[in-house]
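Ex. 9. Protein: DoxX family protein.
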Amino acid sequence: MSCYDRRDLGLLLLRLGTGGVLAAHGTQKLFGWFGGHGLEGTGQFMESVGYAPGKASATASGLAETGGGVLLALGLATPAAGAAAAGAMAGAAAVHLPNGFFAQEGGYEHAVSLGLVGAGLAVTGPGRLSLDHALGHVLNRGWMVPAALGVTAAATAVVIGLRNKRVRAQAVDEQDTLFEE
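Predicted structure tokens for DoxX family protein:
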């Protein structure tokens, strides 16, 4: 009988699939790969949706997605990797929230799905087919899960809160401009 079970294989598939998608999206932002716009274009977009400064926001988002995705796929530092993915996807979901749930309408379903899988992997762990397991879980201790998720949740709440404040202020400015005309 194999030392790996269905759970290990399932976690490997979740890690590879989710990590690969996240890493691909992150490299679009960082390097313009896979039809992305690189830091300049992504920075301009980030600024337009309230994340300022745009280029720094694009860098942070790209690093969280690329780094978190690669680490998830490898099963290395899984609590931090999953938390990074969840935080990045919460930021993306905030942008898509006004469009409703479904992705075909520009909604947040894709971002939420990736973020939940990342958080779930942080909590569950990577399984035995992982670098964390091979390294004796030195970067995957039980206390690291709430620490990584807690720090990420706090930082994400601040970033999204500031973004939402900018978006509301911009809407008020636009409304005032309309009344002045």
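Check your answer against this statement. The chain is about 75% helix and 0% strand.
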